[in-house]
Amino acid sequence: MPEPSQQGQIWAATSRLSGRRATVVLLDSDVVIRSRPMLVVAPVHEAREVPSRHQLLTVAMATGTEVVALYDIAIVAKNTLTEQLGTLPPDVLERVKIGLRARFDL
Fold first, then answer.
1. What pLDDT shows up at residue 83?
2. Could you give the domains of the chain?
3. How far apart are the first and last CA of the chain?
4. What percent of the chain shows pLDDT beyond 90?
5. In degrees rounded to 5, what are phi and psi of residue 25?
6. Integer Cα distance of 2 and 96 in angstroms
7. With contact defined as beta carbons under 8 Å apart, do 28 and 34 qualify?
8. Could you tell me how many helices (H) and strands (E) the chain has, helices first?
9. Alpha-carbon Rg of the chain, whole angstroms?
10. pLDDT digits (tens, 9 = 90+) for 37-85
11. CA-to-CA distance for 77 and 62, rounded, in angstroms?
């Protein structure tokens, strides 16, 4: 199985407690992703499931029906990432970075 290696990768994360699977996007820098056991991620949700009060903190994925939920950032253990599903296109990753700056008022 490949290891997480770069910002913007899309992974399936499986909870060790519940066994529930979620799709997440890696937000940490490439250096942090390669060196630390815990990673900062944002879940991917269907756009229609996002509460209206959080819509400004989402970034549309290339598919159009899913969004990266920057309002719901979490820290997960690297070993819970079970399957690499893809990588965000450069333009979407750039919008995620802009969204993170807005989220944290940077």
1. 96
2. 9-103 (2.30.30.110)
3. 35
4. 86
5. -115, 135
6. 23
7. no
8. 2, 7
9. 13
10. 999 999 999 999 999 999 999 999 987 799 999 999 999 999 999 999 9
11. 26
Which residue's structure tokens are 């807005």?
A: 102
Query: Among candidates 63, 21, 94, 45, which has minimal Cα distance to 55?
Result: 45
- Tokens describing residue 91: 């333009």
Copy the structure tokens of residue 64.
């159009």
The pLDDT assigned to 105 comes to 84
Complete DSSP assignment for 8-57: TEEEEEE-TTT--EEEEEE-S-HHHHHH-SEEEEEEEEEGGGS-GGGGGG
Structure tokens, 1: 């199985």
Structure tokens of 76? 């997960």
Q: Report the pLDDT value the prediction gives residue 106, as an integer from 0 to 100.
A: 61
